Sequence to fold (313 residues):
Amino acid sequence: MGNDSTTARVERRTVRAPTAPAPRASQPPAPSAPARPRRSATPLAAAPAVPKTPTAAAPRGAPRAAIVIDDLGQRLEDLGQVARLGLPLSIAVIPHLPASAQTVREAGRLGIEMLLHQPMEPREEGGKNPGEGVLLVSMAPGALREQLRRSLDAVPGAVGVNNHMGSRFTEDPAALAPLMVELKERGLFWLDSRTTAATQGGDAARAAGVPEIERDVFIDAERDPDFIRGQLRRLLETARARGTAVGIGHPRPETLAVLEELRGELLASGVTLVPVSWLVRPAGTAPPGPALAAVPARAAQAASAARPGAATP
Fold:
């Protein structure tokens, strides 16, 4: 998502469109022409059959929370570290990065739910680079939709879209309108990362009939482990108070270490962890596409072979 705004810790109520159509179920197809890896990399081992976590059998009316890990695509080993946690997380993949294509393929094989983490124009230009394929408020609607299509083609199997940076873009209803038309036509949902308190993303999605939800807690707005622990517990408290909550974090060492440390606490909290799409669906409907129920550690340990300098078995 990037450090796009000083309002990174603004927390607001999650909003959903109850009458919006649910995204279509689909299995992520393999890219027809995957990008060549920059170095030899061993793919993650396929996950063997494992018992379902509490995610699959939540008591009726139990509070639910989703954790989305943003900024995947720079290194394949980031996916391995996320998968090794064995938690029902969703990931958001930035298109056109060195390991984006590999990350998409391996996440599909492991059954990890994916979103497109679409680069969007930040409010302040200085020192911020949203990346290739950025959506700008100055784009004509047709050009904007074509840019978005290229990004979606780079992350096949994505069940939704959230913004990478984008404080300026998500404040502009005219810029958001063609984006929402494309999401509506593809049956995708919108997750507003809320990089600005003035975002119009939810309103634009509802106006277009696009299922939508928004971030409640930034898990690692600060990289201090104590802060991250507090934010994860805040996510659980929010879910207990409201019924649902969404947290967004990043594949940083501190974040992953705290998630591993608190794994037992999260699963035993009484709050059911679910992929984020499960919070967008009407109650009782099946989730779209694959969702990570549990991935044992051995299913992702092979990702360590993809690290620079690691020996290839």
